[in-house]
Amino acid sequence: MQVGKVVMPGLINTHAHVPMSIFRETVDGYITQDWLEKKIWPMEDKMTKQDIYHASLLSFVEMIKTGTTTINDMYFMTEDIIKAAIESEIRMQTTRTLMDVAGDGDIRIQELENLLNTYQGKYDGITFNIGIHGFYTTNDEYIKKCVNLAKQYKLPIHIHFCENKKEAEDIKNQYQVESPVELIKRYFKGMHVILAHSVALTKEEIRELANEGIFVSHCPVSNLKLGCGIADISEMEENEITVSLGTDGQGSGSNLDLFETMKFTALLQKGIRKDPTKLPAYEVLKMATINGAKALGLEKKIGSIEEGKQADMIIINMDEITVKPMNNIFAQMVYNIKGTNVETTIINGKVLMENRKIEKIDEKSIYNECNEIICRIQN
Predict the structure, then answer these.
(1) Domain limits at 197?
(2) How many structural domains does the chain have?
(3) What is the tens place of the pLDDT at every residue in 324-333?
């Protein structure tokens, strides 16, 4: 089979922290909590709105250049992330991270409401969800406030869930439950919920979750790098849970290249199950496209190339030694294509990159700005 180019739906990243582009490769040699407390949080405290804006632009350039057209973000100073998304014409679902560990939880909710009143429905490429950081950074009363907000604005909920064993144990101890899944049933019954990570779950807990209609955002690279383990998404798939793919922030996930994420996803499941038939390539491609659209509640607009949907597409150069000969196009896309093989990126019918060139954004200026930011806040 001779294939020169492949046109496919743009990739959809369902869990990320967009401005963390500047923290790429800061985690090496740290356990998760030390990395956060000793490295990331002190630097984040020094970040200005302009820092957030430029770091977000760096991520959006990376997305365009590696074929991701939609991203689900969870961070703070969200308005500056939105401004960068509108300028770069990326499609983004976002939130203002909601947590209540320092008595400022209500302020965070008000900030999110202000964003909703300012931006919701005003820009086609910007949508929202209610981003609860996690059960362990909230409490019963606060979660109920967040759920009421989701119901009021008819929005999905996006939450970190059981990223590692310690988090799962902390949740059980804090809420006095036998399983973290009990909290999903207690607070989110009948709601549209995206669970990021879901690594530390037993097979029984996964089967319980299957009855709740939730969505899982699988972030294998970040989970491996932080030593969290490997989510059993084969079990999730077998129980008809919709699994999509995320990168997490580049601080732990290294990059936003969802082609790399697809390869890790497929290989890890075959390895832990000792079964090469697990997760055929086409199913992994669905995770990166239409499953992501379903997770974000956008499947009527994006996730596949169909009449009536918005034109979010990428064109991939298949004239590479690593894909010769072309025996199985789906397998080649998952195992041998990289984000750098993407030569054209189109969002909502607008060409943002052609022949690997982005005309509208001054990439070099963004690189320089971000280098200056990280040098300043590291000191």
Answers:
(1) 5-377
(2) 1
(3) 999 999 999 9
